[in-house]
Amino acid sequence: AQSVTQLDSQVPVFEEAPVELRCNYSSSVSVYLFWYVQYPNQGLQLLLKYLSGSTLVKGINGFEAEFNKSQTSFHLRKPSVHISDTAEYFCAVSDRETSGSRLTFGEGTQLTVNP
Amino acid sequence: NAGVTQTPKFRILKIGQSMTLQCTQDMNHNYMYWYRQDPGMGLKLIYYSVGAGITDKGEVPNGYNVSRSTTEDFPLRLELAAPSQTSVYFCASSYSTGSYEQYFGPGTRLTVT
User: Fold this and answer.
1) Mean pLDDT, residues B52-63 taken together
2) Which of the residue ranges A99-103, B40-44, B74-78 would you say has the lowest mean pLDDT?
3) Which residues are bridge partners to B43 per DSSP?
4) Residue A99: its pLDDT value, please?
5) Angle at Cα A47 formed by Cα B55 and Cα B110, nearest 5°?
6) How far apart (Å, rounded) are the C-alpha atoms in residues A65 and A2?
7) B92: Cα separation from own chain's centroid
8) Is residue A58 pLDDT above 80, yes or no?
9) Which of A5, A15, A99, A112 lies 20 to 30 Å (CA to CA) from residue A81?
């Protein structure tokens, strides 16, 4: 079984500042890693995912994340945020070794970008 | 493509009433899922389906039922609504599991009073 911990429930930042949203996971097997974003009153959409290869993954809207196997982390970063990045962000994992493995989500981090 | 659609968008139920939340996808995905989202709790999997005629329980299935008679549709049934079922419900679909992206519907906000 896997678990996901998002270390900050709320992150307020000013526009054009850098941001990092932290995600740690626990698993006894290798995993795939995902970040989803949920804009107000909408469903979730995929920002980026790590499957294999380079540990730095680039996603949509200028976001990127780095997989750190030794620290079991997958932190999300953006060098300069916009008001439109205000949303809730979810880290998720799935077990890469079990057929039919399903996503386990973290509890979410609310990013609020202030002018 | 419309993607994943859900109806209704909002619903208020009285305790003990029943209702069905509808979910349809037009991407020919094999896998479909129902999640509930409660504040500060992330998403919890209620039921999922790996294809027409095949469903299985997720993490929080009590009080819910599902069926999957077609690839496109995956309705979620609440038989005896309870206040604990007040939540936002999301349907999602994917081509497969593991590394594959899930596509989410816009959600149904349900209040049970």
Assistant:
1) 94
2) A99-103
3) B37
4) 63
5) 50
6) 19
7) 7
8) yes
9) A5
Judge: A43–B4 Cβ closer than 8 Å, yes or no.
Answer: yes
Q: What does the pLDDT look like over B62-82, one tens digit per residue? A: 999 999 999 999 999 998 999
Query: A13-48 as b/e, with b when 16 or more CB fall inside 10 Å?
Result: beeeeebebbbbbebeeebbbbbbbbeeeebbebbb
State the nearest Cα–Cα gap between A80 and chain B, in angstroms: 26
Classify residue B39 by its DSSP letter.
T
Task: Suggest the residue from A103, A104, A110 to mutate for an interface test with chain B (most B CBs closer than 10 A).
Answer: A103
Query: What own/partner pairs with CB < 8 Å and gap ≥ 24 does B41-49 have?
Result: B41/A107, B42/A4, B42/A90, B42/A105, B42/A106, B42/A107, B42/A108, B43/A44, B43/A90, B43/A105, B43/B90, B45/A102, B45/A103, B46/B76, B46/B89, B47/B76, B48/A102, B49/B74
Neighbour tally for B71: CB within 10 Å: 17
B106 vs A contacts (CB less than 8 Å): 41-43
Using DSSP, state whether B112 is helix, strand or coil: strand
